[in-house]
Design goal:
alpha+beta, Cytidine Deaminase, domain 2, five-stranded mixed sheet, binds tetrahydrodeoxyuridine
Amino acid sequence: MSVTTTRLVQAAIDAAKTAYAPYSNFHVGAALLLDNGQIVTGSNFENASYGMTLCAETVAISKANSDGQLRAIREIAVAGGLVGQIGTGAGPIMPCGRCRQIIKEVADLTQSDIPVHCAHATGYTTFHLSELLPHGFGPASLK
Ligand code: THU
């Protein structure tokens, strides 16, 4: 395991603890590694109107964007689980379909097949956006 990736996954686990998820009790954290080595985090933010929920990855990417760092995102880590069990699942925690589409915007902007490190009980598994969202719709599709 690369030390930087381990740190990024740990940041996602820590971020999950800030989730507002009283409806699902499923806490998710996302951590973005920027090109300057900084880490931007986000967690899921639920709503009484369930469908309004914002996922951790989306929160983190929006946060990076409002800090002027959208194009600086290089890698993403995601961790989650029920309260008290974050990062302990047997299988990797995978980004939902909507988040894959949000990550695609970053991948296309940065012309990089962004690695997404998905946490599980024994560490993490790395997927690339092209594996998570093959044949996706992106900025080039609008031309
Ligand atoms: N969730 C995320 O934050 N990211 C994902 O990629 C998948 C799901 C959240 C949404 C909801 O608050 C909870 O996990 C259960 O679905």
